[in-house]
User: Which sequence fits this backbone?
């Protein structure tokens, strides 16, 4: 695909439990909103400000209430038909809250003005604070909601005191220049305009909630210990229904149940990767090695003090209690069972997290590693659910790249392995422990494409060890076997899906397109996009006859009525008559009860094909698909069958793939294919005039009299609807 071609690409994914295709349907929209809600994290809820009680009046502050960011840039982007911002989300809940419209009108106009000037969502400037309007908003309500939005892109989003002068190519990047104007201190921190807005809001309003529409790590220091901000929802970038999802959680339509997938530190410089992040545009040296994310903050001495919100953290509108049922190791698997009870006054979900602590030996170890987690279903007040968390012991092994124990192997070092259960990496209690008596290799690998130029890496005590240097690896080396061109025709997903294999970057056939969903256009049935029709329902509307007829063991009657089990004898006989099968059926002593062997091996090819056609007719489909289905028939039978079929299919759509011109002579539209490309389109008469390929085929198959007769009638006598 071209870089932005996905903006035209609407995937058709079977998301339903029964394989139902729901993309862009009402069901998909609902699913999208629920998925967004499941991942949102409640960071703060002092004085039980949330959920807002019915009838609450709100004043929405910040451009983010309209400047909604649905997803990230590049690979983080999502293709949607629309987006719902926070204001729109609240407006869908009139029975829950009311919004001060004058203030929202101000932000709407300011955002629209910047969009018209070429700004992108999340790349707008916070407008000057409307003091007079804000005072009127305060007279209207005592509750304010601030929304902060961010669009972050690789390379220019983060800025720290460690940053060195970047390459000229980066400095001249238009996005970087725009980001420099909007976020002079980097988009991790609030801009001076946002800070001023936040300060004024918290001075005016006694109740303040914050919604963070962001895609990654941001500053949380301004609200973490700020008593004037009682509630904070980390709403992330929630796709098309993200604004509605956030509004519903704030209003108690559902309960927040998301947990942080990373640690939120006080400053950007507290993250160890900040030091080398902008050292070069060509590479990043991750000197922290395995101590990435929460592993760094939980392991390295002193790093824990830099944390505002730890990994796995997330509040709920309700409260829970847990009771350990059992914890054991069996056949190499740690299994912990725990009862979780909703002890609060709202329905809600809780996530149980199991952490492991391996012994510090000669190989580096993080102090805590997430081993397993499970989320409850929605629990009503007083309801209990038993959760089972399982973690294979082998996944706690450390990789030995230098050969301290055994080179290129995963090793479980001897010592004590402890397991902790809780609701975040820091809110846990020990539930199990076992001892490994000796070093044990769990998997032996072979070193390929190993790092060769990283000078040093971090150890668990915060110091660094020097690493051996070697010649760079062959950049063309691949451990994945390349599938030969002759085995990849550019259309087969089965070939591309082979594990450990890759196809050529270019299709095998010139100008062939890799098999994928259409980038533009659609197929409709009675005006309905087939992607919105359940797979079972769609198949019921189709009558398909393949090139080689397929019969099943049974008898003639069961084969004809295979797709219409409740059909009548009259329907069966009518289908057989149209398919020109009656003649040979009636010659058999048992007639329609005559046995059919598996695959139809006891009937001729022509008879097999006629029975296959009869089966499609008996189904009464909306669409007939004949895949070169008439080639096994003699010419006389072919003509007679088509005449009878034309009458039967007058109200149906008929698609025919054929090699014989006579078979598709009277079609409403004919597509001519040559080497996989469409080289002609039109009626028979039109194609004889303007398509050389079609004319050559027709002249080789039909006499002059047949050609002239067909041109004169032009399909008026027997029109096949295609």
Assistant:
């Amino acid at each position: 695909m071209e870089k932005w071609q996905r903006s035209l690409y609407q995937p058709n994914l079977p998301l339903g439990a029964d394989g139902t295709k729901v993309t862009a349907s009402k069901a998909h929209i609902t699913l999208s909103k629920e998925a967004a809600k499941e991942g949102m994290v409640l960071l703060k809820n002092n004085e039980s400000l949330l959920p807002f009680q019915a009838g609450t009046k709100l004043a929405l502050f910040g451009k983010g209430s309209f400047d909604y960011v649905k997803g990230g840039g590049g690979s983080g982007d999502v293709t949607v038909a629309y987006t719902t911002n926070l204001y729109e989300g609240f407006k869908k809940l009139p029975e829950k809250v009311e919004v001060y419209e004058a203030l929202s009108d101000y932000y709407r106009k300011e955002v629209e003005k910047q969009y018209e000037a070429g700004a992108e969502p999340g790349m707008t400037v916070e407008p000057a604070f409307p003091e007079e309007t804000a005072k009127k908003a305060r007279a209207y309500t005592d509750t304010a909601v601030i929304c902060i939005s961010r669009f972050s892109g690789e390379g220019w989003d983060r800025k720290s005191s460690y940053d060195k002068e970047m390459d000229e190519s980066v400095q001249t990047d238009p996005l970087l220049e725009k980001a420099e104007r909007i976020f002079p201190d980097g988009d991790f921190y609030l801009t001076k305009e946002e800070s001023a807005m936040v300060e004024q809001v918290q001075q005016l309003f006694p109740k303040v909630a914050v919604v963070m529409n962001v895609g990654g790590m941001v500053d949380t220091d301004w609200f973490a210990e700020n008593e004037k901000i009682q509630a904070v929802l980390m709403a992330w970038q929630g796709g098309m229904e993200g604004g509605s999802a956030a509004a519903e959680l704030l209003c108690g339509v559902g309960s927040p149940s998301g947990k942080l997938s990373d640690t939120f530190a006080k400053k950007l410089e507290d993250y160890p990767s900040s030091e080398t992040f902008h050292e070069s545009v060509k590479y990043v040296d991750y000197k922290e090695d395995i101590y990435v994310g929460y592993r760094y903050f939980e392991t390295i001495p002193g790093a824990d003090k830099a944390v505002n919100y730890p990994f796995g953290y997330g509040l709920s509108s309700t409260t829970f209690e847990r009771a350990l049922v059992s914890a054991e190791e069996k056949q190499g698997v740690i299994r912990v069972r725990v009862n979780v009870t909703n002890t609060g006054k709202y329905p809600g979900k809780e996530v149980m997290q199991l952490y492991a602590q391996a012994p510090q030996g000669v190989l580096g170890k993080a102090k805590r590693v997430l081993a397993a987690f499970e989320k409850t279903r929605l629990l009503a007040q007083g309801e209990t659910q038993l959760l089972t968390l399982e973690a294979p012991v082998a996944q706690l092994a450390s990789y030995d790249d230098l050969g301290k124990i055994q080179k290129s192997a995963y090793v479980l070092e001897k010592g004590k392995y402890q397991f902790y259960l809780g609701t975040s990496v820091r809110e846990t209690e020990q539930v199990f422990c076992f001892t490994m008596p000796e070093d044990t290799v769990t998997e032996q690998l072979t070193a390929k494409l190993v790092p060769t130029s990283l000078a040093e890496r971090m150890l668990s005590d915060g110091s660094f060890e020097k690493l051996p240097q070697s010649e760079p690896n062959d950049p063309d080396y691949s451990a994945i076997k390349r599938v030969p061109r002759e085995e990849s025709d550019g259309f087969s997903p089965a070939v591309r899906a082979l594990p450990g294999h890759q196809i050529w970057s270019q299709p095998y056939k010139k100008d062939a397109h890799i098999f994928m969903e259409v980038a533009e256009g659609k197929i409709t049935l009675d005006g309905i996009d087939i992607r919105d029709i359940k797979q079972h329902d769609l198949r019921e509307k189709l009558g398909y006859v393949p090139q080689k007829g397929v019969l099943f063991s049974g008898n003639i009657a069961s084969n004809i009525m295979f797709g219409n089990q409740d059909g009548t004898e009259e329907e069966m006989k009518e289908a057989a008559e149209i398919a020109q099968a009656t003649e040979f059926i009636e010659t058999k002593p048992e007639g329609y009860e005559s046995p059919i062997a598996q695959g139809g091996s006891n009937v001729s090819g022509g008879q097999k094909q006629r029975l296959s056609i009869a089966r499609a007719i008996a189904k009464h489909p909306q669409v007939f698909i004949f895949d070169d289905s008439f080639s096994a028939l003699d010419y006389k039978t072919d003509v007679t069958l088509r005449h009878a079929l034309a009458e039967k299919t007058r109200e149906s759509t008929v698609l025919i793939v054929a090699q014989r011109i006579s078979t598709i002579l009277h079609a409403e539209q004919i597509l001519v294919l040559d080497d996989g490309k469409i080289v002609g389109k039109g009626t028979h008469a039109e194609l004889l005039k303007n398509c050389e390929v079609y004319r050559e085929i027709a002249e080789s198959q039909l006499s002059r009299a047949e050609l002239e007769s067909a041109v004169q009638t032009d399909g008026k006598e027997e029109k096949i609807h295609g």
Notes: The CA atoms of residues 255 and 317 lie 6 Å apart. Residues 524-713 form a domain with the Rossmann fold fold (CATH 3.40.50.300). Confidence is low (pLDDT under 50) at residues 1-12, 488-497, 511-516, 715-722.
